[in-house]
């Protein structure tokens, strides 16, 4: 029963976060100097045209009325009409969302798969040569501007060596298995850029928590009992050190999405980030607003799932909530 | 934040001997000193930009020329000197980072410390911080910057507006612990002024954390500003490191002229790396018990 309550609480918090994002967006659009409805009309219009435009977008009504209407529209999945593409924002963005999910999701997966063993390697040889190398790589990746990293990989692996295709997400005119292979080939470089940018956080967290848990009494006891060092490390110490790493996934989700926006621009990858880049040049506010809300919802839902998994893994969390 | 040495009240929490010890230990960290050196050089370049290079404007005669004795970092698609762009970009990037992080630190610390003292406010602050930190910040910054229109002021305010929650999160946990200390209770008996207690006792106790936050917030601000500029939301009238990359991308010269992305990228990398290493070294030096091998 307590697990049910725990899940319910987390879902409630997720809904509250999405409501917060929606409200912030609404207030930004209405209260900031730039008037979104007027941006698409010319600046030297008559007062009458201006009034008509405001009425058309419902901007002449009092703020609370606008707010209720806004939420009502959102609940129906209506994010407005794109200024430039003359179609619904939802349609425009839904075509792009899968690509962003593929890119962000695969990079997260690869980062965790690489980050945990590298952190273990560094922690088990703390102060040694491997520890130094892993740390240098981790800190370097963390300090690089994500597009710089993307351009570097694009230039070296894509252009000079020609190992991977660059630009877009698939090769036109391919079908079936060939199409999937082309998707995979186009994914490698943008995904690798995001992996290198995130890896540091995971490796360093894994390393420091593992060093802490290697100093715990139960580890010393297990060693004293004659258990092989390798088994103590992987079976006993790692298990406890994994929990902070799970928390990190939640904390880093926002960063992954931000990084994906920038990397998609570098690689002309047809995801939401590329859509944001195009919307910025055309000042397409409905698309920018929709993109933020969609990305926020994605992050919140992913975070919720991570938290619930964490709760299932660690009995103390359920008990405490 | 050079006020550390000038604040006499902080002696209650951090005796001068400990502070001198921090500096002495810090001097023994070669990486920390190197990082400090790199930051000093970057600040010098930013301040001395008018002496180092002419402001890049208009058109040059050599378009997309590789690095040479005349143009150290090559030229861009308009024939402008990339070295001059990077130098002037340092000024813009550091100015943005310093201003944004200053606002974020002041607001973030204030909310954290006042919140810790007045528990009712703390609940609200805590919820807002949690909610903001669980949203993707870059898309939010993009939306706001696009709405208001790109200018240096917009960029500074947008970055500050979404950076303070991180500062509050870090400072708040420490401030909450300090407020429960017996000496704060003692101070409550001596004065009824919360302002006095907060400025004399709570702020000095969280000062080391604030110092680390300044460096880290500023380096994150450089990355955010570069990210916005890279998407075309930087100030169109001033050169910044992000704008050099944006212009290169727009001109389609990113892959043909390697020197265009390389030099601004290196500048960003050096700054962020130095900031990270400086804060790590400062943390190690401040806490003598900290085992260097284990971190």
TrEMBL record, chain A:
InterPro entries: BPD_transp_1_N (IPR045621), MetI-like (IPR000515), MetI-like_sf (IPR035906)
Topological relation to the membrane, as annotated: Multi-pass membrane protein
Transmembrane segments: 99-121, 133-159, 179-204, 241-263, 291-313
Domain (ABC transmembrane type-1): residue spans on this chain: 97-306
Annotated compartments: Cell membrane
Major site of localization recorded for this protein: membrane
Domain of life: Bacteria
Keywords: Cell membrane, Membrane, Transmembrane, Transmembrane helix, Transport
Family: Belongs to the binding-protein-dependent transport system permease family.
The name this protein goes by in its record: ABC transporter permease
Organism: Actinophytocola gossypii
Automatic annotation (TrEMBL), chain B:
Gene3D superfamilies named among the record's database cross-references: MetI-like (1.10.3720.10)
Annotated PROSITE patterns: ABC_TM1 (PS50928)
Keywords: Cell membrane, Membrane, Transmembrane, Transmembrane helix, Transport
Residue stretches spanning the membrane: 31-52, 97-118, 138-164, 206-231, 262-282
Domain of life: Bacteria
Membrane topology: Multi-pass membrane protein
Domain ABC transmembrane type-1: 90-279
Pfam families referenced in this protein's UniProt entry, alphabetically: BPD_transp_1, OppC_N
InterPro entries, A to Z: BP-dependent_transpt_permease, MetI-like, MetI-like_sf, OppC_N
Compartments, as annotated in UniProt: Cell membrane
Predominant place of localization: membrane
Annotated family: Belongs to the binding-protein-dependent transport system permease family.
Entry protein name: ABC transporter permease
Organism: Actinophytocola gossypii
């Amino acid at each position: 029963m307590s697990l049910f309550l725990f899940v319910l609480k987390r879902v409630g918090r997720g809904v509250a976060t999405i409501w917060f994002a929606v409200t912030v967006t609404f207030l930004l659009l209405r209260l900031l100097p730039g008037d979104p409805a007027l941006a698409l009309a010319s600046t030297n219009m008559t007062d009458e045209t201006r009034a008509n435009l405001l009425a058309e977008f419902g901007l002449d009504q009092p703020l609370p009325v606008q707010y209720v209407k806004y939420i009502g529209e959102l609940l129906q999945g209506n994010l407005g009409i794109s200024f430039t593409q003359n179609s619904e924002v939802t349609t425009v963005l839904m075509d792009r969302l899968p690509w962003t999910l593929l890119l962000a999701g695969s990079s997260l997966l690869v980062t965790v798969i690489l980050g945990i063993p590298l952190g273990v390697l560094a922690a088990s040889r703390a102060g040694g040569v491997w520890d130094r190398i892993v740390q240098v790589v981790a800190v370097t990746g963390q300090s690089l501007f994500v597009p710089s990293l993307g351009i570097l990989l694009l230039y070296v692996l894509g252009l000079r060596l020609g190992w991977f295709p660059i630009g877009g997400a698939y090769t036109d005119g391919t079908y079936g298995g060939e199409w999937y292979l082309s998707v995979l080939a186009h994914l490698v470089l943008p995904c690798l850029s995001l992996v290198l940018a995130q890896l540091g956080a995971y490796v360093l967290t894994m390393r420091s928590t593992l060093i802490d848990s290697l100093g715990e009494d139960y580890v010393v006891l297990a060693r004293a009992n004659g258990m092989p060092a390798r088994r103590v490390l992987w079976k006993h110490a790692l298990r406890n050190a994994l929990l902070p790493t799970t928390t990190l996934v939640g904390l880093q989700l926002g960063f992954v999405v931000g990084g994906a926006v920038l990397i998609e621009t570098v690689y002309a990858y047809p995801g939401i980030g590329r859509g944001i880049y195009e919307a910025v040049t055309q000042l397409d506010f409905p698309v920018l607003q929709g993109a933020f809300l969609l990305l926020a919802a994605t992050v919140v839902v992913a975070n919720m799932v991570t938290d619930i998994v964490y709760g299932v893994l660690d009995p103390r969390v359920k008990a405490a909530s | 934040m050079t006020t550390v040495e000038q604040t006499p009240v902080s002696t209650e929490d951090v005796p001068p001997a400990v502070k001198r010890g921090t500096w002495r230990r810090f001097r023994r960290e070669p990486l920390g000193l190197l990082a400090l050196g790199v930051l000093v050089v970057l600040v010098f370049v930013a301040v001395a930009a008018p002496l180092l290079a002419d402001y890049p404007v208009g058109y040059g005669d050599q378009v997309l020329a590789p690095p040479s004795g005349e143009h150290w970092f090559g030229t861009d698609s308009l024939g402008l000197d990339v070295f001059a762009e990077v130098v002037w970009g340092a000024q813009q990037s550091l100015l943005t980072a310093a201003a944004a992080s200053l606002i974020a630190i002041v607001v973030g610390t204030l909310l954290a410390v006042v919140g810790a003292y007045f528990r009712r406010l703390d609940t609200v602050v805590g919820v807002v911080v949690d909610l903001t930190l669980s949203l993707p910040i870059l898309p939010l910054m993009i939306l706001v910057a696009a709405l208001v229109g790109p200018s240096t002021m917009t960029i500074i305010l947008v970055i500050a507006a979404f950076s303070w929650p991180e500062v509050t999160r870090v400072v708040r946990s420490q401030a909450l612990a300090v407020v429960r200390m017996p000496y704060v209770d003692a101070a409550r008996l001596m004065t009824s002024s919360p302002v006095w207690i907060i400025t004399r006792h709570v702020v000095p106790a969280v000062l080391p954390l604030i110092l680390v936050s300044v460096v880290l917030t500023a380096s994150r601000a450089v990355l955010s500003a570069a990210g916005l500029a890279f998407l075309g939301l930087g100030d169109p009238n001033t050169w910044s490191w992000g704008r050099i990359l944006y212009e290169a991308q727009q001109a389609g010269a990113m892959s043909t002229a390697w020197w265009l992305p390389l030099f601004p990228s290196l500048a960003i990398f050096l700054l962020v790396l130095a900031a990270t290493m400086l804060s790590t070294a400062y943390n190690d030096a401040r806490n003598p018990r900290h085992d260097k091998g284990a971190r």
